[in-house]
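Hi support team,

I'm opening this ticket because the web form for multi-chain structure prediction keeps timing out on my end. I have pasted the exact lines I submitted so you can reproduce it. The total is 935 residues across three entries, so I didn't expect it to be a heavy job. Is there a limit I'm missing, or should I split the entries? Thanks in advance, R.K.
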Amino acid sequence: MSTPLIEAVDLCKYFKTPKGMLHAVENVSFKIEEGKTLGVVGESGCGKSTLGRTVLRLHKATSGKVLYKGEDVLSFSKSEMHKLHRNMQMIFQDPYSSLDPRMSVRALISEPLSGLPKSERMSPAQEKESVDHIMEMCGLPAHYANLYPHELDGGMRQRVGLARSMILDPRFIVCDEPVSALDVSIQAQILNLLMDLQDEHKLSYMFITHDLAVVKHISDDIMVMYMGQVVEYASSATLFANPMHPYTVALLNSIPTIDLSKRNRERITIHGEISSPVNPKPGCRFAPRCPYASEECRNEHKLVEVESGHYAACTKGVR
Amino acid sequence: MSDYLLEVNDLHVQYNTDDSVVHALNGLNLRLKEGEKLGLVGETGAGKTTLALSILRLLPKVGQIVSGSIKYKGEELLDKNEAYMLGLRGRRVSMIFQDPMTSLNPVKTVGNQILEVLNLHFPDLSKDEKEKKVDEMLQLVGIPASRKGEFPHQFSGGMKQRVVIAMALIAEPELLLADEPTTALDVTIQAQIMALMGQLKEKFNSAVLLITHDLGVVAEFCDTVSVIYAGRVVEHGAVEDIFMGNENHPYTKGLIGCIPDLSKDEDRLHPIPGSMVDARSIPEGCAFADRCPHCMDICRKIIPEEHVNGTHSVFCHLYDAIKEGEK
Amino acid sequence: MRKKKTLSEYSTGELVLYRFRKNKLAMLGVAMFLFVALFILFAPLIRPYDTVVKQNIADRLQGPSSEYIFGTDELGRDLFSRILYGGRISLFCSLAIIAIAFVSGALIGGAAGFFGGKVDTVLMRIVDMLMSVPSALLAMAIITALGNGVWKLVLALAIGQIPRFARMVRSSVITLRNMEYVEAARCFGISSMKIMLKHILPNGIGPIVVSATLTLGAVILSISSMGYLGLGVASPTPEWGTIISENKVNIQYYPYLGIIPGICIMLTVMSVNFIGDGLRDAFDPKSKN
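Hello R.K., no limit was hit. The queue was backed up. Here is the completed structure from your submission:
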């Protein structure tokens, strides 16, 4: 196999808090090939957003490596950082707070260009042309260029967010819950747009979301996280067809469905709630909520390749 | 002669801002029987929360009920004075808000916040009786009574929402208005909270008006569904009519089509084109016309009438044509 | 939307100007300020300087008349001339004080808020130390050390105002620094300096400008209290606050002596407040028009 576009190796991110070390991301490894999407799923506080930000160096990693085409981006010096910014971008969750309210759509979209090193800057005419081009690509009517964010609705704002990330023509985009703030009818528009852009530009995505239904659609591989740990990692089809970790199973079970025949299905509901991994004990962090937890669960947590390409930290969810 | 617990007829509500008038509700009709679980589905800006606030007469100052009626057990609420409404709110009709983080007072213990409801509506109970009721209620929502001396910040999101539910149900209301009660919560917690609401609803036999944008939640929880768009109901029916029938309103069809289906492998989703109408200028005719794949000339001129078929009713010109054809 | 089309051909700067011009209250503020400022600026053309100090005991405590349009004080000096020339010092000093305090406060607070951590702790403890000394006492100490003089007065009072600006700027920078659009900008590789100038400054400046204009009134008054303590601008040059305080014995029976300079202070402060409010709205694209 060739070098994957993006690879993370044993990535850790701890935060210092007054109560102790918060293990937000612990020993996470993954690979994303060119043109593919990795879905990262989990509930709030599971570390999925922190993971995305650590990969892009918005947080400083505690340990581990992030390789872009084999180069460790975490060891880039300041003068090499533009390589990262050029190729690795991010789309934010909240289309309201991620756009500066005082900038017009044109200014917002061209902003990333002003961060380029001087040698790569465009002339104003080229800049205008590339903004126009990117707007069309993202389905933004040309006359929107002079509007301000508050004049747009959520879907259009998210298109602006997408256009900003696309203007540097990156290879890899971290999408942090890009559709969860949008209405369902708009969600589908944005997801389709993301998929179209991926096909045209051979983009790779890391798609962070709490919504399994959304992630199934767009992802090739899916990684399920719980309190900073990866509990299951498999191809999208495998994960949905054959979930193994009790948490994955519970998560799948909790999704409300419009299929009335499943209305009275038996559910394995899990009790309790996620807490924060401050000074965590060893072992599986899901154990306190897990219906099948045994003594050994509290001692060890290790991802095992249960079948080809399907990694799970536990297989007790299989029934 | 009222078969209905709550009956909303042709309700028009608008918000008057400095430079424009926002038409939030434009002739909304709603019927809710005692003990029924009605889901009110719509997207941002459809007027869902405005309806709940109108029923409780808690609209902000800029909000104005222009016309229509809201009958509760046959009595017109819009004619009642504030004192009557005070006795109604929290006692006979309670509301659960979307965000449990902000709907609790951070400087009061949760026990006292629940107690406050009792003090307000049952001043005759002795102190011990009230305390006992609070303890029972907390147990019912799955919180150990020993935690009633704690403050909201010591509770997690799901636990806070349980406290809010306890507050809403302690007076054993006849009607519970739940405005997006689980939107701020994670899916596993959402499942817990919806299950809890289902159990408690059975216990107290309250009617529930569940306001949400999530069709899945509605399909799992409700008996009947009203779909609203731009301040009007476009379709109403039993859950079976909505999710298994084939005479849906194009908007409902669109909404259902937007949900990624976990059981199918599809490459593309089927979004509804365009975006929500601007509530400052609601078009003539059917408000959905601009986004509708079946839009006809008549749709832009006349607001469609109700087409009733058993428990199911649709407001769409598409079904005029079918009926004409049948004749 | 269609109306916006014509508007959208303007650049951002033009739009700000356009919105500012559309704001009636702000334009009134500008008019009032110009009115006061022009009188003060061209004072020598209106009254010769010696009328400020010329005493005319025969005409003492005369009410406003055609000869003395604002009347005279207890030494028979022309109040109108005194206000004209006094305004030069009041206005100049207060604007200079605000400017110095604003700029240095913004730099300190901005650095503390943006960099956080140790920089924040050190800078803010210094600011707290400054804050713990009453500003009048601080100014007195500085003037006593440096001696009297216009610039020394400005410096002394400006230092006392720095903490409030630093605190204010710091808290708004901290709020803005955590906004997602700042994170987005970092993601694009925009430098800290640029983020500061392009995102944080324009979004945070509004309330601070307004507060600066509100402080102006207090500063005019504190200049006068310095004058009253004998630490202000050396007499005989008058200044608005001094004019009020030197006439305070007579105000009860000759109220114009207090009312007229008071109105001057009020007009100036009000006009600057209107301008400040107008600027804040003009910078905000969400405002109407």
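A quick check on our side: The domain at 23-283 of chain C is CATH 1.10.3720.10 (MetI-like fold). Let us know if the file doesn't open in your viewer.
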